[in-house]
Design goal:
By secondary structure, this protein is an all-alpha fold. The chain is about 80% helix and about 0% strand. It contains 4 helices and no strands. The longest helix has 30 residues. The two termini are about 20 Å apart.
Length: about 120
């Protein structure tokens, strides 16, 4: 259960960071603003699913959420994403990146544990 809680907390941290940035002005950026709001909603939903649904799906969603969000940031920080060029600086960036890594690792570990339980049963 601790792994679900940690992964849910990471998804929620990412959701909060994206919501704060959306409120602070990212909502004005075409495409990116909508993506930040969607990220905030999705992170919250995934965090709740991790806590209430003992299935492999929430872990899969957490890993995909973390990978896609971190991947989008890496694209933005390297070649740009929809005209936005970010940098690896600031507390929000580092907090979100760390939470995404936890989502990826935690989600994959949860999927693996679920698979092991199914094979053993």
């Amino acid at each position: 259960m601790w792994l679900r809680i940690v992964t849910a907390a990471a998804a929620l941290v990412s959701a909060v960071v994206h919501l704060v940035l959306w409120v602070d002005g990212y909502r004005e950026i075409s495409v990116i603003g909508s993506a930040f709001l969607l990220n905030a909603v999705a992170g919250t939903v995934i965090a709740l699913l991790l806590l209430v649904w003992r299935h492999w799906v929430p872990g899969f969603l957490a890993a995909g959420f973390g990978a896609s969000t971190l991947g989008a940031f890496v694209l933005s920080a390297t070649v740009g994403l929809f005209g936005v060029h970010e940098r690896w600086t600031g507390g929000w960036v580092l907090t979100a990146a760390a939470s995404e890594v936890v989502c990826i690792v935690g989600g994959l570990l949860l999927v693996r544990a679920s698979w092991i339980r199914r094979v053993s049963a």
